[in-house]
């Protein structure tokens, strides 16, 4: 079905009559986010994990399994884990370190329904500078005042370290983990995935700009205004719909 411009801008996040319908929707969007990440080259080998809360069991999460390439993930591949990271639905294996980090953030942030992380080239490279993104472009302004920089723990091996990681995330929408990469969150998987795609591009833009010279910054009041308008959960959700429309048209098997 063709979606006209007027219809597109009036799209709103869906409402569900049942938890089962909500779960089906979330898992389809989770699989789509994985495909989009894979297509954009955000994952290498077994790296990269995306989680979303289960609508009925909020302390349980769905995640893509290790061993399945991001660009090939289907709904049927996804697995559900309990608060301890044990697989309770599905047959795939999961990344234990990734789950430690994601579970800690979900536990500390009840409003966060989805968390995205992958070893995207530019985001991982930018994280080595241990700096927040600067408001040098309109896109980068979206993250102004809503980024965390997590220097320690640099390596997470146990739940205690994961809790410190989540504490370092604070209430921010996104985080730069020193020497590791970026983590993005959202009220929906759509929103979290869009922030990841956009932030990776912003990291690329700042690396390019600083290689060429000294970029100027937007004024703080203008950056804050853009962050409040273009950085809302609804805007993040709506922005992802362009990616959803494209991936479901090209990869309809992702819902299998």
UniProtKB/TrEMBL annotation:
Pfam families: Aldolase_II. Residues 28-207 form the Class II aldolase/adducin N-terminal domain. SMART domains: Aldolase_II. InterPro entries: Aldolase-II_Adducin_sf (IPR051017), Aldolase_II/adducin_N (IPR001303), Aldolase_II/adducin_N_sf (IPR036409). Belongs to the aldolase class II family. NCBIfam families: PRK06208.1 (NF004855). This is Class II aldolase/adducin family protein.
């Amino acid at each position: 079905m063709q979606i006209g411009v007027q219809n597109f801008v009036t799209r709103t996040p869906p409402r569900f009559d049942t938890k089962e319908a909500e779960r089906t929707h979330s898992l389809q969007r989770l699989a789509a986010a994985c495909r989009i990440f894979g297509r954009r080259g955000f994952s290498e080998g077994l790296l990269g994990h995306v989680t979303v809360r289960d609508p009925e069991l909020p302390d349980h999460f769905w995640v893509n399994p290790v061993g399945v390439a991001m660009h090939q993930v289907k709904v049927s591949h996804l697995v559900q884990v309990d608060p301890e990271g044990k697989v309770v639905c599905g047959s795939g294996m999961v990344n234990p370190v990734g789950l430690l980090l994601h579970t800690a953030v979900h536990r500390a942030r009840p409003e966060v329904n989805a968390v995205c992380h992958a070893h995207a080239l530019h985001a991982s490279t930018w994280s080595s500078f241990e700096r927040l993104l600067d408001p040098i472009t309109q896109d980068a302004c979206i993250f102004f005042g809503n980024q965390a920089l997590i220097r320690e723990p640099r390596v997470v091996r146990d739940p205690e370290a994961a809790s410190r990681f989540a504490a370092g995330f604070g209430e921010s929408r996104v985080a730069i983990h020193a020497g590791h990469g970026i983590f993005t969150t959202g009220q929906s998987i759509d929103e979290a995935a869009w922030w990841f795609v956009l932030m990776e591009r912003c990291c690329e833009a700042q690396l390019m700009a600083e290689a060429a010279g000294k970029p100027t910054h937007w004024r703080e009041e203008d950056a804050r205004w853009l962050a409040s308008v273009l950085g809302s959960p609804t805007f993040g959700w709506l922005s992802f719909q362009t990616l959803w429309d494209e991936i479901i048209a090209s990869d309809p098997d992702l819902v299998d």
